[in-house]
Amino acid sequence: MYFRITAVALLLFISHVYANVEQVRFFSPFTTSNDTVSSTLPSVTPLALSQNPSIIKTVQPKFAPTESEKYATEEWYLLTDLKKGSFYEFRVCWPANNPLDLKVGVVKASKLDPTDELYVADGDADIMYAYIKYSSYYYTHIKPLMETPRPVTFELILSRCTLLVVLGDSIMMQSLLVILGIVGWNVAVNNECQSAFQELKLGKSLKFIIFALNDSKTEIVVAKKSSDPSYDEFIAELPENDCRYAVYDFEYELAGNEGKRSKICFFTWSPDSAPVRSKMTYASSKDAIRRSLNGVAAEIQGTDFSEIAYESVLDKVSKGPGSH
Question: In the chain, which residues have pLDDT < 50?
């Protein structure tokens, strides 16, 4: 029991490590509502506390055009249903594996013109806006990712703060993490998973195995096993919008015509488009399946198909121990 509680506590801690968050807190100097702002403002998205306090959207980021222009994209959000004198937080969350240079802010203004130039009022404005500015911020040897950065899923949240620092939705989020953590450490591994793995490792009659959580999220089961040697066929079995585990007997040619080598690779497939709860459950359950598979030579983590492309996996596998 002590170790389970410790593990859940660690999950709560690392939940803040593996997520990117930028936030700004502010007092509302006046009361706003949807009736206050009746005009249609260009390039502005409404964010109402009582109706849609959060927005989830997927965007295509860009690299900063020049060194002097730090942010490639700028977005504005109209904040409504704010109460005078109340303390609020506007925050933006996105996956840790999508490096961005991002800035958030909140301003009081009278209007925005069609070019998104802000006109700040002299204290008599009754409209508040939040903005985000961002650019892709990374370097990789994978050329397609440098030419076109992969999409990023944002969650933009407007919350009313209690006791100035504790958000009203924090208890719900931490409770969800505790529940998912307990579920993760109680997930069982079906016996067929180990027998199928032995068949792949020793019998060499299988080329790959796909593992998945059952519908009740209580057990990891074999979803697919195949003797098809095609790597493309293996990739095609991974869903675009959900998570999976997999093992693949990866075979490759050694440099200098020195023959072939093969390594059993364990894949953790967690695409950016998968539901957040699914990604968290699969992450917390990974150790259960991984510990049961003895003989894995390399681990591959993928959040999009470019990261598990044959060339990307070959680059990692061929540099590991026993590769030559």
Answer: 1-18, 34-42, 114-124, 164-173, 176-177, 180-183, 324
The DSSP code sequence of 152-197 is: EEEEEEEEEEETTTEETTHHHHHHHHHHHHHHHHT-EE-HHHHHHH
266 and 300 Cβ atoms separated by less than 8 Å = yes
Count of beta carbons in the 10 Å neighbourhood of residue 237: 17
3-state secondary structure of 299: strand
127 CB neighbour count, 10 Å cutoff: 21
Other CB atoms within a 10 A radius of the CB of residue 41 amount to 17
3 state SS for 97-148: CCCEEEEEEEEEECEECCCCCEECCCCCCCEEEEEEEEEECCCCCCHHHHHC
Largest CA distance in the chain: 78
Give the pLDDT confidence of 250-286 residue by residue, as tens digits.
Answer: 998 877 677 788 899 999 998 878 887 888 888 888 8
Residue 9: what pLDDT? 43
Stated pTM of the model: 0.49
Strand pairing class (152-162; 19-27):
unpaired
- Residue 17, pLDDT score: 38
* Per-residue pLDDT, 40: 42
Which one, of 211, 214, 245, 204, lies nearest residue 225 by Cα?
A: 211
Q: Within its chain, how far is the Cα of 11 from the centroid?
A: 16
C-alpha 249/C-alpha 263 separation (Å) is: 6
